[in-house]
Amino acid sequence: MPLRTALVAVIAATTLFVSAPASATTIGNADDVLTRTLVYRLGDGASFAEGCIGGDPPCLCPIQLGQNLRGTMLLRPTPSGVDTLQRFRVEQVNWLGSLNGERRIVGDGTLEIDTSTDGPSPAFTRLQLRLRIGEGDFVDYDSGWVELYDFNSVDISIAPVGNPCFGAVFTVSALPVPATEMIGYALGDTSLFFEGCYEPCLCPISFAQVAGGFALVPLPNAPAIHDEWALVRINWRSFDDTPGAPSFITARGAGIYQINTAALTPVPPHRLVLDLDVNRLTPEQQPVNYDSGWVFKTEDIGASPPRIKVEAAENAFFCFDRVFSIDAAPTDSTSPLLGLTSAAPSTLRVEPDLPDGWELIENPAIPMGGHRVDLVVQDMGDHQRHVAFNTTATPMTLDTVLGVKAGMGVCDAQVDGISVPFTRVYDGATLVGVRIVVELGLDPDTPTVIDLLTRKSADFNTDAFLNDQDFFDFVNAFFGPAGADFNEDGAANDQDFFDFVNSFFGGCA
Questions:
Q1: What pLDDT score does 26 carry?
Q2: Residues linked to residue 426 through DSSP beta bridges, in sequence order
Q3: 296 pLDDT exceeds 50?
Q4: Whole-angstrom Cα distance, residue 177 to residue 221?
Q5: pLDDT at residue 142 tops 90
Q6: Of residues 361, 340, 95, the one with CA closest to residue 235
Q7: Do 357 and 326 share a structural domain?
Q8: Residue 442's CATH number
Q9: Of 122, 156, 177, which residue is a domain's last?
Q10: What is the CA 183 to chain-centroid distance, rounded?
Q11: How far from chain centre, in Å, is Cα 375?
């Protein structure tokens, strides 16, 4: 081919084919830098009621006032595309209320803040939620646009869309949970996931070990007879490949843990309620409810914070069921998946494991002496990006390993858009990650963003070294009978040569 003939003549000057060097490339931009998800907790001003709230003409029946509406929700900033519009994804609504018994309320939605107003109010806000009360159907709720004066709090009322005759209305009053009030928990080695038949049905029960963690948040506005905590940012996975064990699962969501402190029994009853998105069981990502019911707490009575050891079932332990058997205790990390190897007084060393299919793991309030760090691990497709918030605003160092997909090479590492030194981490001759040591910024609300520039690895002979031999081996393969499909697009052609040269002279290995 004429172009191949021309390429032979210019191999010695191959740098002419190279685009801008990797070190000059800025990774990402302000719009796609992941920001921290905030945990909000309902306060004393939260309330709800149920009855004849609408209709045309208005329906006639009593309206009952609920009590002790409490719990948490997550607010994740998301781009709106408009400078004067802030948008937050509301996730893992995790509430309990009392009305003719306890009511479990879960869902998600959107919170928006419009600052374009010229009126006396500095802004307007709107909350839209999709909520399920107990075992009912999901219902859409909307506040409409209302004035906003306090940007730190959520204080707004919502009602069902469509003005139905019978329904519920909510006053949502919530504030962010301080990092110092979130306690990291990890699942112990005896935590298991069971699937199979309980009485009276007959079929085998299989099980798999479950790992992961969550953050525990106290709920001070619980009824006087209960001590209660919210479980937020649950991230669990199974990893048992024993024959007969359940298939690989991941579970994410929220829950509430209760201890009845007023029970006249030698040991107090306790209860765990979870609503989880379990990947292989809920393809449409509808949360599945798991409930332990009230059972006696027989271990670590009175411990504070509590050890949580209990079984929660999808179907009340009846016939075919799925059950999480949880044994969780406070830890230095909200998830063993964080790979916390040590936490020196001013250096946090981590090597996160992001399971396949997970977009991110959020690790809030990682303790380090008297310090706290929020760390978000995000899947960028062929590598990890880490985003850290120095929540206690004191000098500290993050020593972290960013995972890299097999076959990819790392051309550059950047912290907040500036190239930094890095060390490649290998498993044998296979690149698995990049180690970066960085001093975290001192502004608790400004993220330190650690990212990579990656391309297909130019280590063509996979000997863990990038040198002239890789170039010669590629050229031999390229001009050989089969060619060299370097970019794996299904065809060996001149684009493969250009792509290899870019990776080779960009130092991508």
A1: 33
A2: 431
A3: yes
A4: 14
A5: yes
A6: 361
A7: no
A8: 2.60.420
A9: 177
A10: 16
A11: 10
**8 Å CB contact between 198 and 228:** no
pLDDT at 400: 92
Judge whether 29 lies within some domain.
Answer: no
* 14-38 b/e (C-beta count within 10 Å ≥ 16 → b): beebeeeebeeeebbeeeebbbbbb
Over residues 115-132, the mean pLDDT reads 85
Strand order through the sheet with 360-368: 360-368, 371-379, 384-390, 448-456, 408-415, 418-419
pLDDT value of residue 238: 79
- Name the pLDDT band for 477 (thresholds 50, 70, 90): confident
How does pLDDT run across 60-111, given as a tens digit for each residue? 889 999 999 999 999 988 888 888 888 999 999 999 999 988 999 999 999 9
Token output for 220 = 């001070």
* Residue 28 scores a pLDDT above 50: no
φ and ψ of 499, to 5 deg: -65, -40
**Both tokens assigned to 6:** 């021309």
Give CA–CA dist 25/507, Å, rounded: 13
In this structure, are 281 and 206 located in the same domain?
Answer: yes
Of 295, 314, 330, which residue sits at a domain end? Answer: 330
**What is the extent of the structural domain holding 478?**
2-23+468-505
Q: What is the DSSP letter of 404?
A: B
CB neighbours of 30 closer than 8 A, spacing ≥ 6? Answer: none
Which residues are 176's β-sheet partners? 40
DSSP line for 348-402 = EEE-----TT--EEEEEEEEETTEEEEEEEEE-SSBEEEEEEETT-S--EEEEEE
The reply to whether 59 falls in a domain is: yes
Give residue 333's pLDDT.
54
| Global pTM value | 0.73
Cis? peptide before 220, omega within 30° of 0: no
